[in-house]
C-alpha cells in the first residue's frame, strides 16, 4: 500500500470520527434516526487490506466512537461485524463484473449501482446489530426494525453525498 493511500485513509478516519463524535452523535431525528456516517471508513478501506488488519481497524473504529460517546461496546461490536461481512462480501459485490482493480471502494470505482448496494447492505447490517444491542428485547423488535431501516436510509443518503462531494474521478492526462 502506498503512503498516499495510507495518509488518505488516516485523514478519512479522523474526519469521520470527529464528525460522528461532535456532530452526528447529537443528531437524533424523530426518536428513530441516528446517522452513523463513520462506518463509511470501514466500508471504504482498500480492497487489499489484510483480513486481520480489517478486523482490528473495524474494532478500533468502533472503540473510538464508544469512547467518544460513553457507550458500552455497542459500536465496537457492530463495527467488527461490519468488518467481517466486508471481508466476505467486498469481492463478490464490488469486484464482480469489474475489469479494473478497485483500490478503494467508492462511487467512482466501478459501478455506481454495485457500490450503492454494497453500501446499503453493510449499513443495514451495522444498524441492525447496533439497535439489537441497544434495545436488546424482542418486544422492541418493531422499534429495532424501524430504527434500523430509517437510520440506514439516512446514513446511506449522507454517505452518497459524502462520496459525491469529496471524491472525484481521476482525470486522465491524455488530451486528444
Task: Walk me through what this model shows.
Mean pLDDT is 83; it is low at 171-176. The protein has one domain (3-166): Orthogonal Bundle (Arp2/3 complex 21 kDa subunit ARPC3). It has six helices and no strands. It is mostly helical. Helices cover 65% and strands 0% of the residues. Helix 5 packs antiparallel against helix 6 (141-166).
Q: Name the CATH architecture.
A: Orthogonal Bundle
Please indicate the count of domains: 1
Residue fraction in strands: under 5%
Please name the CATH topology.
Answer: Arp2/3 complex 21 kDa subunit ARPC3
- Main sheet attributes: strand count, strand direction, barrel closure: none
Q: Care to count the β-strands?
A: 0
Mean pLDDT: 83
Low-confidence stretches: 171-176
The CATH C-level name is: Mainly Alpha
What is the molecular shape? globular
Share of helix, binned? 55-70%
Structural class, by secondary structure, is: mainly alpha
Radius of gyration, in angstroms, nearest whole number? 16 Å
- Count of individual helical segments: 6
Q: Give the termini separation.
A: 32 Å
Q: Would you list the SSEs in sequence order as H and E?
A: HHHHHH
Short description:
With 176 residues, this protein is an all-alpha fold. Helix content is 65%, strand content 0%. The protein has one domain: Arp2/3 complex 21 kDa subunit ARPC3 (Orthogonal Bundle).
Amino acid at each position: 500500500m502506498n503512503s498516499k493511500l495510507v495518509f488518505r485513509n488516516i485523514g478519512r478516519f479522523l474526519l469521520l470520527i470527529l464528525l460522528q463524535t461532535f456532530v452526528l452523535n447529537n443528531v437524533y431525528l424523530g426518536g428513530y434516526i441516528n446517522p452513523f456516517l463513520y462506518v463509511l471508513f470501514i466500508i471504504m478501506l482498500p480492497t487489499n487490506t489484510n483480513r486481520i488488519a480489517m478486523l482490528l481497524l473495524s474494532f478500533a473504529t468502533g472503540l473510538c466512537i464508544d469512547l467518544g460517546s460513553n457507550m458500552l461496546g455497542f459500536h465496537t461490536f457492530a463495527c467488527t461485524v461490519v468488518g467481517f461481512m466486508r471481508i466476505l462480501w467486498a469481492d463478490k459485490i464490488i469486484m464482480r463484473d469489474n475489469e479494473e482493480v478497485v483500490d478503494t471502494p467508492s462511487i467512482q470505482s466501478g459501478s455506481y449501482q454495485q457500490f450503492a448496494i454494497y453500501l446499503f447492505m453493510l449499513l443495514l447490517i451495522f444498524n441492525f446489530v447496533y439497535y439489537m444491542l441497544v434495545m436488546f428485547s424482542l418486544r422492541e423488535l418493531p422499534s429495532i426494525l424501524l430504527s434500523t431501516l430509517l437510520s440506514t436510509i439516512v446514513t446511506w443518503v449522507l454517505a452518497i453525498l459524502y462520496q459525491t462531494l469529496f471524491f472525484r474521478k481521476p482525470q486522465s492526462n491524455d488530451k486528444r
